[in-house]
Structures are given as C-alpha cells and as structure tokens.
Amino acid sequence: MRISTNQLxxxxxxxIMDNQKGLAGTQESMSTGKxxxxxxxxxxxxxxxxxxxxxxxxLAQFQRNNDLVTGSLDQQETILRNITNALNRAxxxxxxxxxxxxxxxxxxxxxAEIGQIKEEVIDLMNSQTADGDYYFAGxxxxxxxxxASGTPGNAYAFQGDSGTNEVQLSNSVTxxxxxxxxxxxxxxxxxxxxxxxxxxxxxxxxxxxxGLSEFDTFYKNNYDPITTANxxxxxxxxxxxxxxxxxxxxNTVLSTQGFTSGEPFSFAGIDFTLNGNVGDTLDFxxxxxxxxxxxNTLHELQQALNDPSFTDITYREALxxxxxxxxxxxxxxxxxxSSIGARLNVAESVYExxxxxxxxxKEARSAIEDVDYAEASAEFAKQEAAxxxxxxxxxxxxxxxxxNYLS
Length: 407
What we know:
Blueprint: H1 5-32, H2 43-97, H3 104-125, E1 146-151, E2 154-158, E3 166-168, E4 174-176, H4 181-186, E5 194-200, E6 203-209, H5 212-222, E7 232-239, E8 242-247, E9 252-258, E10 264-267, E11 270-275, E12 281-286, H6 294-306, H7 312-369, H8 373-399, H9 402-406
Antiparallel strand pairs: 1-2, 3-4, 5-12, 6-11, 7-8, 7-12, 8-9, 10-11
Helix pairs in contact: 1-8, 2-3, 2-7, 3-6, 6-7
Domain Flagellin N-terminal: 3-140
Family: Belongs to the bacterial flagellin family.
Protein name: Flagellar hook-associated protein 3
C-alpha cells in the first residue's frame, strides 16, 4: 500500500496534537484538582456532581436553620424557667397569706412583693428576640403581646394570636420554633366554681368550695356545656335531719345526707351551713369554665391583699382562686418546657444526621470529580514521554526518502 506524503504528515501531526491535548487536560486537572472541569469531560459524572452540590447546599441551610432554632428554643426555655421560679415564689406567698394571724400591714407587704412578681412575669412574657420580635405574640411578632388594658376583670389583655412558626431541619423533619402566649399564658383554666341562684326559706350562712379536688371531679362529671339546665341543682330539706341534693335538669337525686340546721355539711367538696326547715330549698348552678392569664391572676391577688374591706370568706375565696390559677399556669408552662426539651433533642439528633450525610455526600462527590494526584502524575509522565517521542521521531521519519537508498 502506498502512503502519500500528505497522509504521513497528517497522521504524525494528529498524533502530536492528540498527545498535546491529553497532556494539557492532565495538566488542567492537576492544577484545578478536578477531573471534571467542564460537562463534556464526563456528562454523567457532571450531572451527579451538580445534584450532590445542591444536596450539600440544602444540608448547609438546614444546619443554619438548626443553629438558629436551637438558640431560640434555649432562650425560650430560660424565659419560661424564670417565670416558673417567679410563680413558685408567688405560690408560697399565697399560702402564707392564708395565715389567719396576719395583720393588714402584713398583707400589704405581701401585696407589694406580689406586685413586683407580677411586673417581672409580664416583662418575661413580653420577651423579645435580638431582632426585636416578641417570642410569645404568635404571628403578630411585632406587637407587644401583653399590655395593661384597664378593663375590670381583664387588667392585662393579650394582643397577639395563636400562631406558631415552624423551621425545617431536613427534607422530612420540621419542628415548632415558637409558642404562642395564647396557649402558654392566656388560656389558663381558672378555678371551677358554683353560684347560689336562689333560696326558699333557707338562710345561707356559708356555701363555698373547700375540697378543690373533690369539687373538680364533681364538676367534670356533671357539667353539661350543651344543655345548661343540667347544671342546676337544688338542696331540699326533706326532714328535720335530712337534705336531698337533686339535679333539676335531669331530676336525678344525687345524694341524701344528714342535716342539722345551722350545722355544716359537705357535698362534692362544697361546704354548706344552712338554717332551714322541712321544705326549704337552696338552688345553685355550676359556673361555666373560665380562662384567665397569669398576669390577671397575680393582679387580682395583689388587689385582694390590699383591700381591707374583704370579708373573711371573700378573702379566702380570692386566695383559692389565685392558688388554682398559679398551679394551672405552672402546669401549662411545665408542659411547654417539656415540649421544648423534646424539640431540642430532635434538633440535636437531626443535626448529627445531617453532619453524617454531609460527610458521605462530600466523599461521593470527591470520588467523582476530584483528581487522584498519584494516578494523574503517572498519567502526565506517560503522556509527556509519548509527546516527546512523537516530536523527536517525526523529523526523522519525515526525512526518509527512496533516494536515500538509491544513492
């Protein structure tokens, strides 16, 4: 087969150019540290690298979210624990205020401390983030949640809403990052109670709740939010030594008890002292359940301690209201603190998982795109030797001619 001079030159030049191209590619990979410097180097590998880079960006954002939400939850937990400490002190003062030996000046001193605790608690409930947002305002984070309203029975009003924010920590995990003051502080159950609605012949010396636990059980079992008539009851003196307690709505006799006019008797945690004869009656009803925020509970306790006109019964009832309100508030706050602890545990677990995913994803991406310098160095030496050989042999081969042999 005859090989023309053009073919010989083209073939050798092509070989030299190919060697130069390979050598340049290896040099670029060694300088950048990447095997894939453009999609054409490895289309499939380049697509995988893009996907892995996007995944690493998402993981980085999730970790930033985790850091932010962990700091916020830690701060909220600190706030709630400080409120708990303040309310525990208020509870001690409430118990102390029940001492019958206290003088009015002693009650005033207790009222002054309760007032300081109230201001501290309100300040904590209105705590703000570093950005100036209120932790417990719900979605209305720029509005101060608890403010003095001046309204009788609701001295401190809640201006926020029940909204809560959530933060995504991974593709499948989202946790609540805030709590609404509506849930934690505002919607606190007040003490359940009853109201005497009427009497016929009976003189009432006393009718009040003395056994809170027993009355709460009776209330839960008998209060009817739908048929209000079922919340009405009647105490009837059926004999000189006997009374009957009947539900007027269902006409069911609930209890028959011994009775002595002017002497106390108890029913479902309620102490009655009645003066009456056979046929006399007393009607009472279960009051609808109420909710009262802790600021109002402390405010009303302060007022009761400062008011010298309160009768003994009224004063004791005010202390009972305060004690139950404080206990229910502490229960609500404890539940939220427990919830924060659970969410912090989840955040920590997800953080560790994301770190593991980040490491494995980086390793997988590195295996696809990063250069093995030992392998690349050997390849560079081989390509350099091939190029050098091509450059040195081509002039000799191109100089060969038939005339060299004819001479």
